[in-house]
Amino acid sequence: MSRFLSICGLNRSFPNDATGSDTLTKMQDTTHKVAKRHAAFVGVVVVSGLLFSKMLGTLVAYALHNDSSSHILIVPFISLYIFFMERRRVLSVTSTSIGPGTATLAAGVLVWIADKYFLQLSGNDPLSMAMLSFVLILIGGFLLCYGVAAFRAGMFPVLFLLLMIPLPDSVLDKTIYMLQLGSTEITYGLFEMAGIPVLKQGFLLSVPGVTIEVAKECSSIRSSIALFITCLVAAHFYLRTWWKTLLFVMLSLPLALIKNGIRIATLTLLSIYVDPGFLKGNLHHDGGFVFFLVALLIMWPVLELLHRSEGPRVFPNRETQGVVESRVVQS
Fold first, then answer.
1. Residue 292 near residue 259 (C-beta atoms within 8 A)
2. Contact of 203 with 215, CB cutoff 8 Å
3. Low-confidence ranges of the chain (pLDDT < 50)
4. Is the C-alpha dihedral spanning 21, 25, 31, 34 positive or negative?
5. What is the pLDDT of residues 111-141, one digit of tens each?
């Protein structure tokens, strides 16, 4: 009879009611503890947002009126989206890391105290310090609520929040200067390659019929930062090897200069041979997006080549993945 039941697939062992009840209780306890961690971290975010509400308002206004910081408005949403997409892997192992979390929180508080009471900063430097303090407090709260293992697994979306910090004036000025210098040199080289007579004096380029200046407004810092962030996110999703990721992201820097040099040379030639209004028209003021897309088209085959060179990604089977994703270490 037992053999007949075995053949029919009916001879199976089932857990008794006590075992099933214990398993259900453990699952409920785990779910409850994870929910408490989520609630605690949301509390950290809300309290930090309230404490820094004034500076966050200043940050939004600054980002809306400065091309160098317009990316700040979208950074939290990108970080949240990546975290949501990878939440199962990131939160597969959680714990309470009191030491690292408290240390990071303390660092954020110390930065805030130093900025408010000791450092005599000017320009947008106080805003940069305040946002550094804010982000450190969020990272510290994440470590306290979810632990070091979760932080390592979600390091990219968590540290991506650092891009919310505006560049200090001294760093911003040097960055814009380097973009001006590089763009001028690239444009000068393009004119020479095209056989167009050109004279370079600082940031001034004189070609027959027109003299242009690669001013700060022409440094293309907004599209350069956008290109850097786009390459950074693409590398996170498509590349696994750290040096290939670094190589791909670093390639965006010279490409930003090349892209801007092509833009300046194109506008200059259009103003000479088509219509002088091109130097003051929509393509000059709002055409950066077109050349940004050109840069992305150049970077795409590079990303594809690096991606293919890494070989196929090996995924665990469903049963193993389910075990890994459901593992929660409570402390």
1. yes
2. yes
3. 1-15, 314-331
4. negative
5. 999 988 888 888 889 999 999 999 999 999 9
